């Protein structure tokens, strides 16, 4: 009983320190991880480690897969303002030591959402900017320039192919794509809840196989004129680009 | 405090260029100065003194500058470096031009994360300075002028390997080249010769543009890895130097020895090409004596390994095109970084 008064005073003090808004407040924000997941024909993409079959009967070992993402945002279910997660990001798999998922974590307002949206590539206003205005280690200074005055390669797929049954992956395939006209908005519709026991992980899946072969079209990697697509010959790659933009799906946990 | 909110924008306006006044474009994205090692004049001066001091080596004969000679754009002209007592190293000495701008791992194999870490390696390496840090630090601490210089650079006279590394890093961050013929052409202050312009077009694959003035020109595929402004993508590539059917067969595993991944064997960091005409011989083992040999190698498509870069393949360049590429590479020379010696007297790349 002799401790009653001090305890009461302590409780009153603690109560007084509480902000009105702190009391019985629902979760306002929660961490959500966006995991970019790369696959080849439904299997996790493993740089160099795996040989993958191709519809022409050939096989591939990948060296590099990367793409820029602009204006990554969540779409609220009520149609309200989108929730911007990132202006620009570079998603890249280039080492046999890379994990299949490239993860980014954001603090997101709790609530109901109807999907996720991003631009595939570097949005035009950033694609027009001098990269020297950014820090040397900024994502737009990762040496993904077309040239000294021309800006970003939006996506790259590089692999070595075995076109003969000789065990040698000796045909380089190099597809570099990007220009303002190729910029695409990707909208992935799926309802989910953030906070209050909702999802904390959004998995953005893309399948490189579908970029090379899909919709009844298969890019002919045996054609020497289609083994290297760089710079100005973007028309050759537009099929790959459009299939890549259509190859994204969203899963929630 | 709130007053600053109003003051700062006004200050910004006062500093902004007037209408019509051209704002100077930055040459490169700014160097990243580490928070725990900001560059200062005293730090750079100390780093320069240490860089040229053979007292860092076990027998007082080898300094950083023994291999990183300024007149050769901070290389040594040898296939592989030669250190204490004439011991040969295993790799070609990398140049230091604009090294402060790099933010990915350094050395041919990427075993150092930054300049501060890189600077610690040579002192204890047998075929470089051949000593040890405790002994080197004791030697430096016996010199009162060094204690004074460390106090000026770091606020107190204590000397240790971390501080030596930091001072050396500060000096290396000062080795900036931004006045090559290439840079002056970019700024509109010079023009390429016809041969240099052809080389530029080949280097940057301008022939790929079907509507451009170079349509139909072969692509030399250089800039995918040697990406401007520093002409490196700072990544690790196998550029087809050695024929192997088994990735464990490389005589020098390169990046693989650091990453522990057999798939990285035979991969080496893409070197920057600024001042490349001064840094012969070439490749991680110095196997090519001239730029002409380098261009011949890439023109051939190199040798087979399953991790060879997909951008290394036969180019079918004609002799005049190969010569043009070499001419363009000479436009990347900045003689202002070359301070003495025969190379300075014969330095190519400056305007007439």
Strand content of chain A: 35-45%
- Helix and strand composition category of chain A: mainly beta
SSE-based structural type of chain B? mainly alpha
Q: What percent of the residues of chain A sit in helical stretches (DSSP H or I)? A: 10-25%
SSE order of chain A, one letter for each helix or strand: HEEEEEEEHEEEEHEEEHE
Write down the overall mean pLDDT of chain B.
89
End-to-end separation of chain A in angstroms reads: 51 Å
Principal-axes geometry of chain A comes out as globular
Write the H/E string of chain B, N to C: HHHHHHHHHEHEHHH
Helix proportion of chain B? 25-40%
Q: How is the main sheet of chain A built?
A: 8 strands, mixed
Q: What is the element layout, followed by pairings?
A:
The complex is a heterodimer of chains A (253) and B (352).
Chain A: H1 4-17, E1 29-40, E2 43-44, E3 52-53, E4 59-76, E5 83-93, E6 101-109, E7 111-120, H2 124-127, E8 155-162, E9 171-177, E10 184-194, E11 201-207, H3 208-212, E12 213-214, E13 217-218, E14 228-229, H4 234-245, E15 248-252
Chain B: H1 2-15, H2 41-51, H3 64-67, H4 115-118, H5 133-141, H6 144-154, H7 161-173, H8 181-186, H9 194-203, E1 236-237, H10 255-259, E2 268-269, H11 291-300, H12 319-330, H13 341-345
Antiparallel strand pairs in B: 1-2
Structure notes:
The complex is a heterodimer of chains A (253) and B (352). Chain A is built from 4 helices and 15 strands. Chain A is mainly beta. In chain A, strands 3, 4, 5, 7, 8, 9, 10 and 14 form an 8-stranded mixed sheet that branches. In chain A, a hairpin with a 2-residue loop joins β12 (213-214) and β13. The longest helix of chain A has 14 residues, at 4-17. Chain A starts with a helix and ends with a strand. Residues 20-24 of chain A have low confidence and may be disordered. Helices cover 32% and strands 1% of the residues of chain B. Chain B has a two-stranded antiparallel ribbon with strand order 1-2. The radius of gyration of chain B is 22 Å and the shape is globular.
């Amino acid at each position: 009983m002799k401790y009653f008064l001090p305890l009461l005073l302590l409780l009153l003090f603690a109560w007084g320190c509480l902000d009105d808004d702190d009391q019985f407040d629902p979760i306002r924000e929660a961490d959500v991880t966006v995991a970019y997941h790369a696959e080849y024909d439904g299997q996790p993409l493993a740089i160099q480690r795996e040989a993958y079959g191709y519809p022409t009967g050939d096989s591939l070992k990948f060296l590099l897969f990367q793409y820029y993402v602009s204006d990554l945002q969540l779409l609220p279910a009520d149609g309200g303002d989108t929730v911007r997660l990132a202006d620009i990001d570079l998603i890249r798999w280039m080492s046999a030591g890379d994990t299949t998922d490239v993860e980014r974590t954001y603090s997101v307002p709790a609530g109901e959402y109807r999907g996720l949206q991003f631009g595939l590539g570097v949005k035009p206003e950033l694609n027009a900017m001098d990269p020297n205005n950014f820090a040397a280690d900024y994502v737009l200074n990762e040496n993904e320039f077309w040239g000294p005055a021309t800006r970003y390669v939006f996506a790259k797929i590089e692999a070595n192919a075995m076109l003969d049954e000789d065990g040698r992956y000796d045909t380089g395939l190099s597809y570099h794509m990007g220009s303002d006209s190729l910029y695409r908005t990707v909208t992935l519709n799926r309802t989910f809840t953030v906070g209050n026991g909702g999802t904390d992980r959004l998995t953005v899946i893309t399948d490189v196989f579908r970029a090379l072969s899909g919709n009844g079209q298969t890019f002919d990697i045996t054609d020497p004129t289609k083994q290297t697509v760089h710079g100005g010959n973007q028309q050759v790659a537009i099929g790959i680009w459009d299939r890549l933009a259509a190859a994204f799906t969203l899963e929630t946990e | 405090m709130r007053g600053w909110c109003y003051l700062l924008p006004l200050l910004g306006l006062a500093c902004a260029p007037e209408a019509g006044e051209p704002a100077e474009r930055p040459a490169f994205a700014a160097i990243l100065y580490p928070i725990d090692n900001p560059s200062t004049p005293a730090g750079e001066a100390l780093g320069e003194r240490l860089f040229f001091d053979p007292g860092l080596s076990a027998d007082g004969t080898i300094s950083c500058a023994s291999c990183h000679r300024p007149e050769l754009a901070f290389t040594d002209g040898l296939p592989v470096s030669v250190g204490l007592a004439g011991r040969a190293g295993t790799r070609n000495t990398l140049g230091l031009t604009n090294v402060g701008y790099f933010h990915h791992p350094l050395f041919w194999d990427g075993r150092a994360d930054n300049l501060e870490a890189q600077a610690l390696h040579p002192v204890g390496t047998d075929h470089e300075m051949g000593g040890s840090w405790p002994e080197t630090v004791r030697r430096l601490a016996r010199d009162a002028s060094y204690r004074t210089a460390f106090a000026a650079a770091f606020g107190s006279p204590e000397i240790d390997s971390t501080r030596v590394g930091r001072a050396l890093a500060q000096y290396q961050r000062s080795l900036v080249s931004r006045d090559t013929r290439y840079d002056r052409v970019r700024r509109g202050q010079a023009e390429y010769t016809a041969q240099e312009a052809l080389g530029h077009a080949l280097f940057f694959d301008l022939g790929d543009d079907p509507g451009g003035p170079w349509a139909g020109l072969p692509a030399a595929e250089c800039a995918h890895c040697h990406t401007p402004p520093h002409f490196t993508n700072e990544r690790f590539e196998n550029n087809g130097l050695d024929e192997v059917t088994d990735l464990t067969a490389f005589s020098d595993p390169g990046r693989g020895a650091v990453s522990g991944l057999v798939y990285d064997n035979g991969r080496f960091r893409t070197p920057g090409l600024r001042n490349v005409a001064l840094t012969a011989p070439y490749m991680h083992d110095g196997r090519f004596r001239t730029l002409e040999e380098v261009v011949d190698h890439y023109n051939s498509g190199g040798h087979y390994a399953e991790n060879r870069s997909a951008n290394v393949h036969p180019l079918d360049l004609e002799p005049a095109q190969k010569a043009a590429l070499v001419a363009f590479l000479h436009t990347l020379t900045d003689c202002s970084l070359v301070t003495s010696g025969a190379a300075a007297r014969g330095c190519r790349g400056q305007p007439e």
